[in-house]
Amino acid sequence: MNKEAILNKLKPIVAPYVQNKEAFEAYNMQTDFMNDLEINSANLVDIVLDVEDAFDIEIDNDSMERMLTVEAAVEIIQVKLRNKE
Amino acid sequence: MIGNDVIDLALAFENKNWKSERFRSKLFSETEKHLILQNKKPQFMVWLLWSMKEAAYKAHQRRFNLKRRYNPRDFKCFLEKTSSFEAIGSVRIGEAGYITQSFFDLKKIHSLASASNMLKPEFRLFEASSEIMKSGFLSHFSKTKNWTNPKLQLQKNTEGIPYLYAGSEALQVPFSFSHHGKFSGYAFAHQPNLKLS
């Protein structure tokens, strides 16, 4: 799966937790979950769980630690998908 | 250094994920999971421990000027004394430790964490927006320090951490903001001999 496809598949997963809808319209690789989308830190773990289900991967703690931006999430997902093959 | 965290329980309780072991394992240690499952109100305990971790995270991040990380499991909670409205405890991360105080009722939890018990936290909780809470902080802070001039202003740095400025100078004041659902809170350390940096 290429980065573009992961980026698009991630968008609806993130959507329910977004507080700043305006910032979400500009959703791209540089988007920051907390600083831009104002997602509550308590909801980041919900996103991690939803990502695990949607992509059928496991996000370990070291990866979760870095999942603060869309770009980091996309890269982590891509590596996990590759390792699965 | 100081941190605080507010939980709107009505909003937090909408989240049913806490029932899954997978969710709990991403946030909590074995000891903490045990505390949750043994409690008569397990869902409340999830959010009490979470708010302690968040408050300690904020204090820790500012104390050591750290990059942001999402590592709640590294923050280990210890509860020393709990009553029907308050919980006293501590949070440890690596070599560092934070003393915590949490105040709660059926609607909300407000947790405070400080790097040492020499820092006496001043704090308030509002059923109001962040903007109202922040202006409450500025007036409370000014009053505590008998501050008149120069005018106090808040600005965020690139890590998203707010700093307090008097005119163009950043004040070395440990403080922390939090907002969740209908509630907002702040905490700051009472330092009697504050000077401009």
Q: Which SSEs are present, and which pair or pack?
A:
The complex is a heterodimer of chains A (85) and B (197).
Chain A: H1 3-14, H2 21-25, H3 41-55, H4 61-66, H5 70-84
Helix pairs in contact in A: 1-5
Chain B: E1 2-8, H1 9-12, H2 21-27, H3 30-38, H4 42-63, E2 76-82, E3 86-93, E4 96-104, E5 108-114, E6 121-126, H5 130-145, E7 152-156, E8 162-166, E9 169-170, E10 175-180, E11 183-189
Antiparallel strand pairs in B: 1-5, 2-3, 3-4, 4-5, 6-11, 7-8, 8-9, 10-11
What would you note in describing this structure?
The complex is a heterodimer of chains A (85) and B (197). With 85 residues, chain A is mostly helical. Chain A contains five helices and no strands. The mean pLDDT of chain A is 96. Chain B is 29% helix and 35% strand. Chain B has helices at 9-12, 21-27, 30-38, 42-63, 130-145; strands at 2-8, 76-82, 86-93, 96-104, 108-114, 121-126, 152-156, 162-166, 169-170, 175-180, 183-189. Chain B has a five-stranded antiparallel β-sheet. Chain B has a three-stranded antiparallel β-sheet with strand order 6-11-10, covered by helices on one side. A three-stranded antiparallel β-sheet of chain B has the order 7-8-9, with no helix packed on it. In chain B, helix 3 (30-38) runs antiparallel to helix 4 (42-63). The radius of gyration of chain B is 17 Å and the shape is globular. Chain A binds chain B through residues 34-35, 40-46, 48-49, 52, 61, 64-68, and chain B through 7, 12, 15, 17, 20, 22-23, 26-27, 50, 54, 68-73, 160, 180.
